[in-house]
Amino acid sequence: MEIVLNVNKIDVYKEVDKTTSYTGAKMIDANEAVLDRIGTVDEDQELLERFWNESRAEIAQNMIGTLQSEVMSGEQYTLTLNVSASFDKALQPSMQISLFSYFVQNIIAKWFVLPIKMSPVNMLIMRGHSSMMYAKKSFLRRNRQGRSMFNHF
User: Fold this and answer.
1) CB contact at 8 A, 83 and 133
2) pLDDT 10s digits, 93-114
3) How many domains, in total, are found in the chain?
4) What's the domain range around 128?
5) 75 CB contacts (<8 Å, ≥6 apart)?
6) Beta-strand (E) ranges in the chain?
């Protein structure tokens, strides 16, 4: 079974801009010019694009076991994953949000030049993706009396 996850690059950039601007605004008491240094501006587009592409590569590498295709069409990023037939489709919206969050957090981490390769938040997000990929949906099984019961295998 395959699932498709989509992320709009412009939406990610807007969220990155919002977060970096907010961080700069909170630090403005220390130095008036900090907002211009911390917040992203149009001139930073080339650098943000590099961070976006690095994030794409990291996602593809982390999903290599289930990756069917990874496509960038215009501003739309589409990730198609081949998952188990027992994959719980109810997890797909959560995976969509996690993928978006991964892009935002990873780009922000690179923007702020964090000394660690992946922040704890990103590690949790990717761990969540991994566990969701291999999660199985519970199935209904009947006991000898004909009553239903849930079994988790």
Assistant:
1) yes
2) 999 999 999 999 999 888 777 4
3) 1
4) 2-151
5) 8, 9, 10
6) 2-8, 67-73, 76-82, 139-142, 148-151
Tell whether the torsion through CA atoms of 99, 101, 107 and 110 is positive or negative: negative
Average pLDDT over residues 28-35: 58
Element (H, E) at 12: helix 9-26
* pTM: predicted TM-score of the whole model, two decimal places: 0.67
Region label for 146, one of left (φ > 0), alpha (ψ between -120 and 50) or beta (otherwise) = left
Which pLDDT tens digit goes with each residue over 116-137? 455 566 666 666 655 655 555 6
Burial of 5 (0-12, 13-18, 19+ CB in 10 A): buried
Place of tokens 């690059």: 9
Tokens at residue 142, please? 């009947």
Q: Is the dihedral of CA 35, 37, 38, 41 positive or negative?
A: positive
